[in-house]
UniProtKB/TrEMBL annotation:
The protein's assembly and partners: Homotetramer.
Cofactor: Mn(2+)
Manganese/iron superoxide dismutase C-terminal domain span: 131-228
UniProt xrefs under InterPro entries: Fe/Mn_Superoxide_Dismutase (IPR050265), Mn/Fe_SOD (IPR001189), Mn/Fe_SOD_BS (IPR019833), Mn/Fe_SOD_C (IPR019832), Mn/Fe_SOD_N (IPR019831), Mn/Fe_SOD_N_sf (IPR036324), SOD_C_sf (IPR036314)
Name of the protein described by the UniProt record: Superoxide dismutase
GO cellular component, one term: mitochondrial matrix
Reaction catalyzed: 2 superoxide + 2 H(+) = H2O2 + O2
Annotated organism of origin: Staphylotrichum tortipilum
Length: 240
């Protein structure tokens, strides 16, 4: 398991690393980092049917997520090489690639754990009593929250994600945020759960019916995991 905080720390310490290590020695292993790998799903590809098809899940996980992992590893190694060579322009040029693919890896790794087979105990709001109470205190009711969250998802222009986050400040309140493309939740906010609104997450099954996808996603939301994130039981923001 790799701590992403150490990765960002490495990126911030480029100049000292360049002065301390030779081009031949400088690599991910020397920095205590290992290549990222595609995480296994905690359920079968067909486990979320009929709400998310096995075909979507297999392509989404084994192709799309794998591509983010592969491209992230390649970009990180290229960045290490650029640091060793003192090539600041190359380091700068790689930042967007690292951000995009690193964000894709973070977001999808969280997303798979956001979901659970329909009808399972994890998909019942009763599995997250504390979280549901906080939602009701903020939005008035769980249904009002779902409507607000759905409106935010459907309001995303192009590709992106919708998130319920626990604020790092202001007493740790809840709010709905959206991120563009593969941008992850950053700062002190903790993602409680997120929904992927890229077309590859739904198009093969729902075509252009995004509203139906948004409605049905609630049948497979893993409230148990969401409740644990809200309660601080798990710290998945920086750990993959």
């Amino acid at each position: 398991m790799v701590n992403l905080a150490s990765l960002w720390q490495y990126l911030a310490l480029q100049a000292p690393l360049h002065s301390a290590m030779s081009t031949d020695a400088l690599n991910l292993t020397q920095l205590g980092l290992t290549a990222y790998t595609l995480p296994a799903l905690p359920y079968a590809y067909d486990a979320l049917e009929p709400h998310i098809s096995a075909q979507i899940m297999e392509l989404h996980h084994s192709k799309h997520h794998q591509a983010y992992v592969t491209n992230l590893n390649a970009a990180l190694q290229a960045h290490v090489t650029a640091v060793a060579a003192g090539d600041v322009a190359a380091q700068i040029a790689l930042q967007q690639t690292i951000k995009f693919n690193g964000g894709g890896h973070i977001n999808h790794s969280l997303f798979w754990k956001n979901l659970a087979p329909p009808g399972s105990k994890e998909t019942r709001p009763e599995a997250a009593v504390g979280l549901v109470k906080a939602i009701e205190a903020t939005w008035g009711s769980l249904e009002e929250f779902k409507r607000a969250f759905g409106a935010s998802l459907l309001g995303i222009q192009g590709s992106g994600w919708g998130w319920l986050v626990k604020e790092g400040g202001n007493g740790g309140g809840l709010r709905i945020v959206t991120t563009k493309d593969q941008d992850p939740v950053v700062g002190g906010d903790v993602p409680v759960f997120g929904v992927d609104m890229w077309e590859h997450a739904y198009y093969l099954q729902y075509l252009n019916g995004k509203a139906a996808y948004v409605e049905n996603i609630w049948k497979v939301i893993n409230w148990a995991t969401a409740g644990e994130r809200f309660g601080g039981v798990v710290e998945e923001k920086n750990e993959l």
